[in-house]
Amino acid sequence: MNAPVDMSLSPAPTAAATQPASGQAPLIDVCDLRKRYGETEVLRGVDLQIGKSEVVCIIGPSGSGKSTLLRCIAALETYDQGEVRIEGELLGYSDRNGKRMRASAAEINRVRRNVGMVFQQFNLWPHMTALGNVMEALVRVRGMPTRDARARANAMLDTVGLSHKGDAYPAKLSGGQQQRVAIARALAMEPHIMLFDEPTSALDPELVGEVLQVMKQLARDGMTMAVVTHEMGFAAQVADKVVFIDQGRIAVEGSPREVFHDANQPRLRQFLQNYFDRNAFWTRGADDVNVV
Q: φ and ψ at 229, to 5 degrees?
């Protein structure tokens, strides 16, 4: 049985709060993005801009292309048409003599060096402690001295509330704690952008809150974030902009108030109604049953 979903909203963001600052290029700029798997076109001309310190929540039904969009932004999937620019630089391709060519792995890694990603599954090394998991990329990818890597990893574990779990192995951590270690691992690389692909979907309901609290603090600290989520309460309370994707296209885009309260788009209304029906909290009285 699920708890009631808090969809209360703070005052609607101003236009300035939901758009990149005037004259400032977006950190993520997606233009006419298309992606096909065989005969199935998963992304069908997606345009999306995310400005510095903006939190964008991406919602939509399963199979609509949400995770594929995020994976294209992270260069974990190649896209077939359009552009993804990270901090103004084209990701995945380069223009040579007027022709678009696939970029080298080294060039792709250079462009996405400031992008961190957290997945549905925690993907921790089971033979390493929490501290070791956070340190690993710092030492092997960044070439950081072990002493410095340990200091930064400890600081990141403290950021996610796990400074006391540095010596614990993943098998001894709850799902929520493992996901927080995964967040600390991504933050240790000092990204300018954080991508979250349904980070709470693999967690028991009681453990979801601890992960969302970490993400809320990141938002308060000004981290630029793109979050694929089914947590509508989180999107309503934290996002500067909510994007509803359906059948590979952005069907609705706006502030949380515009999307959750004022939208008249039929497919969005159906999606939200299905969500509310599935997450309704039922109370049984003496003679009847009521929905809270």
A: -150, 155
**Contacts for 234 with CB less than 8 Å, ≥ 6 apart:** 57, 212, 215, 216, 227
Residue range 241-258: mean pLDDT, rounded: 96
Nearest to 59 by CA among 215, 208, 275, 213: 275
Range 21-38 average pLDDT? 88
Distance of CA 5 to the CA centre of its chain: 20
Would you give the end-to-end CA distance of the chain in angstroms?
13
pLDDT score at 275: 80
What is the pLDDT averaged over residues 111-140? Answer: 95
Q: Is it the case that residue 203 has pLDDT exceeding 50? A: yes
For 222, left (φ over 0), alpha (ψ -120 to 50), or beta? Answer: left
For 211-222, the pLDDT digits (tens) are 999 999 999 999
How does the average pLDDT of the chain come out, rounded? 88
